[in-house]
Amino acid sequence: MGLHRRGGTKMGLGLVVICVCALYVTSAFEIPLEVEQLPTITDQSPSSLIAFPFDESFSVTCEAKGNPAPEFRWTKNGQEFDPFQDPRLVKEENSGTFVIPNNGNLTEYQGTYRCYASNKLGTAISSEIEFIVPYVPKFPKETIEPLKVDEGQAFVLKCDPPKGIPPLQIYWMTINLQRIEQDERVSMGLNGDLYFAHAEEKDSRRDYCCFASFPRIRTIVQKTAMSVNVQTNKAKSGLFPDAANAIRERRPSLLTPPGVKSEIVQVKGEDLNLECIAEGFPTPQVEWFKIGHELPEKASVENHGKLLVVSRAEQEDSGKYMCKAKNALGEAVHYFTVIVEEPPEWVFEPQSQLSMVGSDVILKCSASGTPQPIVTWRVNGELIGASPLPNRRVISDTIVLHNAKESDSAVYQCEASNKHGSLLVNANIMIMNLPPMILTNEGEDYSAVEGKGLLMHCNVFSSPPSTITWSRDDSFESVQGPRFYIHDNGSLEIYETDKDDAGQYTCLAKNIEGSSAIEARLSVKDPTRIVVGPEEQEILIGTSAQLSCLPKYDESFSDDFELLWEKDDMEIGLNYTENPRYLVEEGVLHIINVSHKDQGLYRCVARTPLDQETASAWLTVLDVPDAPESLVLSEHKGRSVKLKWIPGDEHNRTTTEFIIQFEESQWEPGKWKELLRVPGNLHSTLLKLHGHVDYRFRVAGVNAVGRGAYSEPTERYKTPSAAPDKNPETIKIEGHLPHEMDINWEPLLPIEHNGPGLEYKVSYRRQDIEEDWHEHTVKRHSFVVKNTPTFVPYEIKIQAKNNQGWGPEPKIVTGYSGEDFPSAAPDDVGVEVMNGSLVKVSWAPVHKDKLHGHLGGYRINWWRLRSLVDSKKQHGEKHTVTVPGEHTHATVPGSSPSPIPEQNPIFRVTDVQRHSVSLAWAPPLEPNGILTGYLLEYQLINDTEEAGPLQTIDISNPDTTKWLLRDLEAVSKYKFYLRSCTTMGCGPIVSEECTTTLEASKSASPSPSSTTKSPATKPTRSIIGLASIHGGISTQGWFIGLMCAIALLTLIVLVACFVNRNRGGKYSVKEKEDLHPDVESQGMNDDTFCEYSDNDEKPLKGSQRSMCGDMKAGDSGDSLVDYGDEEAQFNEDGSFIGEYTGRKEKRASAEVKSTAQSPA
């Protein structure tokens, strides 16, 4: 109700008229069943209904609609027929259809039926329905006399098939169902008769049978067998000897059709068949012509030239045709006049109409055909003349209703017919005035995809037609713009919708009788897109493929969205049980164990209820080529044969080559070997073969993926024996003894023998003198020449031979007889030290006259004599290296066990001041090369065990053995690190710690010189001095004084011993050892608070300091005097100025540089 009121308001405002359907007459319309209307036939049986005996029942159909619902009645053969009066018929309620059961008695129902559907407004009728009850066709029982004909005489066997339901098919066969052979002489006509142009002896038989087949009723019937007896001329040869085996020639004449001309009436659309069958001897040939025209393109000649067929005949196929049968003696002709007629066809078919009261109605009906169809008008099933109206006139093929009233509503029938058929049409003429009736439901919800089109429906029925407008969101103005279009049926189409189009829409329908309106709602969704689609792939067979598909769609479709995969336009079933090789995970299609059938076009389909998006990619499956097929050997020419094959499928990679293998049955049966390879574009090749071999071959293709399977092998092919094609190769000439020459060669392979009885002829002669060839024939592949001069050149050749003859002329090779030892050694041997680990050895080559053979190379022997530190010579292990060829120099490893220097044996602090520290050290005992300097590093440490930044000093003078560090912090603990360096790198670290003093101190008195332990013994760390002055008792004055006194007394005792030594003269070795204790046992300067470390690589953390004034002496009994080859010397200040001069049992002694000033 509200909608109607809103519609009335809008009408008052005068909306723009968007669509005007029709002002007065509406044709081809659909009236809703809610409105009173005439009956309309909706379904009926075909014009011919055949009662086939194998069907259970036969439905005679008639269905109609109308308001009120129509009632049905039938006529049979023009008489009233009531199916409800026959209890054997099955009827349906509210339907005109009835069913005839197949109870065996159907003949009484045979006839022509018509259905009438009526209500109070009028009557509609159906086309005529012919119910045909076929009978079983049969040939009549008859006795056919045998046919006797003379040889050469024409004759015809009649079939005369019974009538039945077409199509009819005729066959001529024997009693054993063997077809009678037909050709240009013997053929069957369109009427089923069998024609013989002239009789031959072989035509005699007693079982000519004609079979007629009716496939629609599944029936085949047979005519009584006919007998033909051909009497040959041989029977008359006794009376007329010259007539034996002779047939009288005669000119052609036509067996069918009779006469010279005939007229053929052909229905349009059916095949035109023209037939000419002639008799005569020799057998006539038939030709076809269309007089005045070329034969139609669609025409064809069949039945050995005797039948002209023009398929689907049209009017232009009308005209005169001629057939001509001719042989060497003459010709016969027949003329056909072809007339093509056609059943009725509508030129103007009357249409149902809806018209306003008071309007004029024009109804036209015309048809064409040959002959011209007769048009008959009926109203409500009755002839139009039986119910005249004052306002209705019939003019030729047109009916005019003037100033029509509602009572003029009726069903008009127009029927056009000729001898070839009839047409019937019902035209409903409705005269009424009706306000708009909107058939579309109120409140429909429409959804559209952004960017896509949409139809919103407003189906209206009214008379006269209504004006339809659309508006939106309480607006009284009609929607306008190029994207909006209202169709004649009232539907609103929106092109390329966007988000702003969403909202509520109103459809208003209005005519002179009233108005009506409905509302609808539109929502606009995001379009479905595929963000990441599948990509073209080439995948190797047997591997797995992945095709990605990542869609994006409107969130409101989360429950209705589906993602599908198709292959070659067929959906892929993702049921794991049925298709376990396909799996989809997170939009990715996994194809497991790819096979050839997986190749194709894959499409990802992202689908919502409103739209869908697709993305496609081609998956190419790669594989090795299939095995070649159909291998054929041809062109057999003794020891060559041509091999042909058909390549297998390449599987998307071009075949680059074919491998041809062979297998022979004598030497290695069952073992296939490669014979040759040919390019992939060749499919045949000529094979060059060895003699006396039983071959078979097979072929395989190769592409970028790999080699494919081999084909099935060919049949065997055995080549004849022949002389060898080649001589032995790889001839090797050696001399194991001075007066012998060994000749060896690679024997021919068994397949290369080319026949039995293989032998080798060995020929040799000296190259440096003139002499004849020496020849020997052997079966093995080696030969020894004895009593040869030492190392002289020979010419050698080896030729193969078998029972068929000699191989080709062999090539001459040069070799030498046996060798002897060289009689001289290399001269001018020199040695050059490259570095600490390599030595270059050079020499002058030995003259070739003294080599007595091929120069194999030189051998270098070397061993270690002594250490440069230890003067005593010691032989080490001998080493050997062989230098091949004619080289005159080589490098050998040196004697250094390590590429970097050893650790410094001594590193100590010699003086400590407030802001400086003096350091001294001794060079490494084993520098392992030439020293290039030292790397000195130091850093500040404290009681918290934390270290300061590391400072580095690069000392480039290798002779430096002491260093003064300045600008140090007072009363601070430092750690020092020292390493010796060569060009190969720096050696291991030795470290030392000390603490700078609070005030500057006097120079410390020198320590007596001392010796170190053997390098084999790890030096003992010496700790002399007091505890750290950074805290505790060590900071008290009395304690410091006490410690200084003790140190002073120790120094006095040491000085006294030193003076006593200088005064003493000769003394025992024991006394010497007592006066020269290890440097590790000697006390240091009393003013020095330091420690010695032999191998610390990290800063010391809280080292424990000794409270004692000195340390116990070491146990070493070695003396510097015992090791030195020269006297050790000291400067006036007591510093060491000597050098390391030797070793004693791998132990070294050293002097430590120190101050020598005595206390006052």
From TrEMBL:
Q: Which UniProt keywords apply?
A: Cell adhesion, Disulfide bond, Immunoglobulin domain, Membrane, Repeat, Signal, Transmembrane, Transmembrane helix
Q: Which SUPFAM superfamilies match?
A: Fibronectin type III, Immunoglobulin
Annotated PANTHER family: NEURAL CELL ADHESION MOLECULE L1-LIKE PROTEIN ISOFORM X1 (PTHR44170:SF45), PROTEIN SIDEKICK (PTHR44170)
The residues the entry assigns to the signal sequence are 1-28
* GO cellular component terms given for this protein: axon; plasma membrane
Renumbered to this chain, region (Disordered) spans 999-1018, 1132-1160
Q: What is the lineage of its organism?
A: Eukaryota, Metazoa, Chordata, Craniata, Vertebrata
Q: Where are the transmembrane segments?
A: 1038-1059
Name where it mostly resides.
membrane
Question: Record's superkingdom?
Answer: Eukaryota
GO MF terms held by the record: cell-cell adhesion mediator activity
Give the compositionally biased regions (Basic and acidic residues). 1141-1150
Occurrences of domain Ig-like (ranges): 39-126, 134-227, 252-339, 344-430, 435-523, 527-616
Q: Which SMART domains match?
A: FN3, IG, IGc2
Q: Where is the composition biased (Low complexity)?
A: 1000-1018
InterPro entries in UniProt: FN3_dom, FN3_sf, Ig-like_dom, Ig-like_dom_sf, Ig-like_fold, Ig_I-set, Ig_sub, Ig_sub2
**Membrane-related topology note:** Single-pass type I membrane protein
- The residues covered by the Fibronectin type-III domain are 627-722, 727-820, 901-1000
Kindly list the biological process annotations in GO that this record carries.
Answer: axon guidance; brain development
Compartments in which it is found? Membrane
Q: What is this protein called?
A: Neural cell adhesion molecule L1-like protein
Q: Name one Pfam family in it.
A: Ig_3
Family statement: Belongs to the immunoglobulin superfamily. L1/neurofascin/NgCAM family.
